[in-house]
Amino acid sequence: MIVSDVKLPGRLGNPDMTFEEDPRADPRIAAAFGLMALAEGVESIGPDAGYEEALDYAAAFESVGELAHPAMMETMPTFDDVESAVETIAGVDGNEITLYIEKPKNQTGPLPCIVHMHGGGMVLATAADPMYIRWRKMLADTGMVVVGVEFRNGGGRLGNHPFPAGLHDCATATQWTYANKARLGIATIVVSGESGGGNLCIATALKAQSEGWADQIDGVYALCPYISGSYLNPPTDLPSLHENDTYMLECNMMASLVKVYDPNGEHVTNPLAWPLQARVEDLTGLPPHIISVNELDPLRDEGLEYYRKLAKAGVSAVARTVHGTPHGGDMGFVDVAPEITAETVRSICGFVSSLG
Questions:
Q1: Can you tell me the distance from the alpha carbon of 233 to that of 38, in angstroms, rounded to the nearest whole number?
Q2: Which residues contact 274 (CB under 8 A, 6 or more apart)?
Q3: Beta carbons of 235 and 102 less than 8 angstroms apart
Q4: Alpha-carbon dihedral sign for residues 168, 259, 126, 138
Q5: What is the pTM of this model?
């Protein structure tokens, strides 16, 4: 009989484990992690909280995050080789959608384009936040056009607009970008986003597929996608929700934000709201995907499960895991672990270049 002394990872092996203490964590990120705690100073709400309480929670969560914005703007590189523009387009619900467009100066010839959908659980944050400004400019600085979508949020300053308002805006922005390829100097279009934006870029492709315009999207690059909606009672077949719970994200917190996005829970099985609910047959014919996850993220395994569904559907798909990082760690710690960010940027550049 063989007795194994292998300890389960993270909180599966030690319910009191923290990201800072986890031996798998990048030590530089672990040292900085306490300063980046997303929900610090925001009182949690229970699973029985109502919609109004969930909205208040989302607004408080957003406000705490904004405290770091002045310092982030002050330390942002100048990106002298990138030029910026703003467009306002009409949404399908009579709303206006702001698009932030970054592109290389002195552009010659058509370039690949990313339509970027920012993180925030589809219910908070904005495309004008410093993290997303910097991300778009970083990508544009490599030689691509980046269109950032200011979609309607479920809560916060850009709320309250539950599902499917934000998805409608992302789909409209993608179709507008396709219609303006010549004017923008675009060769191909990849929809991309992280966390809630990872949900929205995947859902945009699913929506395009169901409506017959998927040929307008050449690829999908989703980072740390937030796509299961299964956070109130995390399933055992997504073990990272238990293994990495409280590492940057908490399941209880995410369950509260789910209520902001889908107040009555009527879309819990709708793949346009929660793409992990998609059947394999729903994915057949989608454009190429890359699903990038973070090793120490509660959301890691839902991203990997979606990749497996794509592969079963015959979609050209690749999964990558960024080791040592928490949720969005390859975006959120660019000054702490720059080579990790640079590797993800190289992966995105390689993907968009391969589609031309």
A1: 21
A2: 199, 227, 228, 229, 267, 268
A3: no
A4: negative
A5: 0.96
- Give one word for 212, left, alpha or beta, with left for phi > 0 and alpha for psi -120 to 50: left
CA atoms of 126 and 172, how far apart (whole Å): 17
Summarised one tens digit per residue, pLDDT across range 53-105 is: 999 999 998 998 898 899 999 999 999 999 999 999 999 999 999 999 999 99
Burial 9-38 (b: 16+ CB within 10 A, else e): bbbeeeeebebeebeebbeebbebbeebeb
Predicted confidence (pLDDT) per residue in 219-263, tens digit: 999 999 999 999 999 999 999 999 999 999 999 989 999 999 999
Tokens of 182: 């010549």
Tokens for 109?
């010839």
Both tokens of 340, joined, read 């990790």
Rounded to whole angstroms, the Cα distance separating 124 from 257 reads 9
Angle between helices 338-354 and 130-140 (to 10 degrees): 50
Distance CA 312, CA 310 (A): 5
**Calpha distance 307→98 (Å, rounded):** 31
CA nearest 174: which of 132, 204, 211? 204
Six-digit token string for 162:
């539950």
The pLDDT assigned to 192 comes to 98
Is residue 159 scored above 80 in pLDDT? yes
Pair 224, 118: CB distance under 8 Å:
no
Sheet holding 145-150, edge to edge: 82-90, 96-104, 145-150, 111-117, 186-194, 219-223, 289-294, 317-322
What pLDDT, on a 0 to 100 scale, did the predictor assign at position 161? 98
